[in-house]
Specification:
With 557 residues, the protein is α/β, with parallel strands linked by helices. The protein has helices spanning 2-20, 48-56, 60-76, 101-114, 144-162, 178-194, 209-221, 224-229, 233-254, 265-268, 271-283, 319-331, 349-358, 395-402, 404-411, 424-428, 435-455, 471-481, 483-493, 497-516, 525-548; strands at 33-34, 44-46, 84-90, 94-99, 128-132, 166-173, 261-264, 287-290, 293-296, 307-310, 336-341, 366-370, 374-378, 381-382, 420-423. The strands form four sheets. Strands 7-6-5-11-12 form a five-stranded parallel sheet, with helices on both faces. Strands 1-2-4-3 form a four-stranded antiparallel sheet. The longest helix is centred in the C-terminal third of the chain and has 24 residues, at 525-548.
Amino acid sequence: MIQDLRSSLEILIETVVLELSSGVQKEIPPIQLEIPHDKANGDLACNIALKIAADLKQNPFHIANKLKEALSKRIENCPLSQKIKNIEVKHPGFINFFLSDESLYEILKQIIKENRSFGRSKIGKGKRVQIEFVSANPTGPLSVAHARQAAVGDALANILKFLGFNVSREYYINDEGTQIDILGKSILSRLEELLGEVSEFPENGYQGEYIYDIAKDFIEKQSSKKTETKKDFKFLSQYGVDYILKIIKNDLDDFKLRFDIFSRQSQIAKRGNVEKVIGVLRKKGFIYEKDGATWFKSTTFGDDKDRVLIKSDGSFTYLAPDIVYHKDKFKRGFNWVINIWGPDHHGYIPRLKAAVEALGYKKDMLSIIIVQLATLFKQGKPITMSTRRGQYISLREVVDEVGVDAARFFFLMRRTDSHLDFDLELAKKQSPENPVFYIQYAHARIASIINLAKENKITSKNIDFGLIKQPEELGLIKKLNSFPDVLVGCFKLLDPYALVNFLQELATDFHKFYDNCRVINDDNLPLTLSRLKLIEAVKVVLESGLNLLGISAPDKM
């Protein structure tokens, strides 16, 4: 098994490093073997020589060569000699290991045996994780910005669960505050207009057509008496929130996204709860009064300035209920809380982290991911958007135009910290130019070959993996071998992009293999059987990867 090989090699490297550095340093940095991106740098690489060079006061390249010599002698006389084909040293001090073909066959056997569990691990150790994402104010349908956050959050949740974390997806409904009041006033204005009354639309109101829809729905469902008696913006605000939440939940369902919890600000961050939390912070010495306002000493925890929690008029700032909400998260037993926000919240991070630390929780118990915006392109031109003016493309419109699979994939095609250009025309193409089509077609092509083999009753329990010799075949196995590392990388970076990139590379490697290596050979049954097992392994990993992204793996296209 490749993990056993890696562990054995790491232990051997540690032993050799300790011998080399004996008398100089008692402890050495952790030995880590990584899979190099460049195939020329071997199958596994170690940078320990670079890490210990300063303590040993030697050139890292010189250290790496010494370690290579010692490792080569040790490997000659242990079982690893059958697994490691060659060791090379590259500047400035990397030690690169090349696996034998036999090792690669073991990887292939492992994938076939573990099937959809390949890459799964217990690295999370059951740790309870809450990922709060989307959480769009219920003042309108989900926009493209929310859609990208939805794709990122759901894929990340899937990956963390696959790695052994106990994950909960949460949507926080901001159903109070200025924006909700504006929603109510916007609905009231449209309601009066529909009833033939004089109406003045609020200057900063929501102008989307859906506001008319809410007003019409209200008129249809209320008697004329109720319409008159309940025609106040506060009542209409909550009516509008409930109406829009139904739209949001339907859109999320159709985007193949299921939240475990929908929590409401009005229930969690009640005035009494906010005052209670501020009282806790006051007892700890982190609250003071100034200019008639109540301040939080966030600078104590690294923020660039202290923050107001209660304004001079007695109203709360946005931070106050957010502190209550995060205290509630940890009170519910989550060991790790992940927030996924849009770029307009970047400056909010230090103050919230300060609040969490002030409440007595460890700083690393809260992680915040900023997902940059996406620009939609149609016929080569960007589509301009404004939520307030009602000029934007919603998640629903994107899904209706390109489909769920393409929408999800394209929203994940860049790192979360990079702006995303979404080409609607490309996403609809049924050709190799479209990356999600290219990956799904690889899976469907493999399914077709396997079905053809079954129809022709090509099967056997005796597989000679030693027949797998071609560079394209061995390259495929090496790519498959990197799947578990890719998932761990997604966890460490809190970004599913690496998996998207991996699937594109795997599909490319498979199509190259298919063009150069005939799978079903009428005159060579043993070779046919071994290649069928190889593509079976590719199919397993493609399906697992696509499913983790929330994308289907069709058998036919």
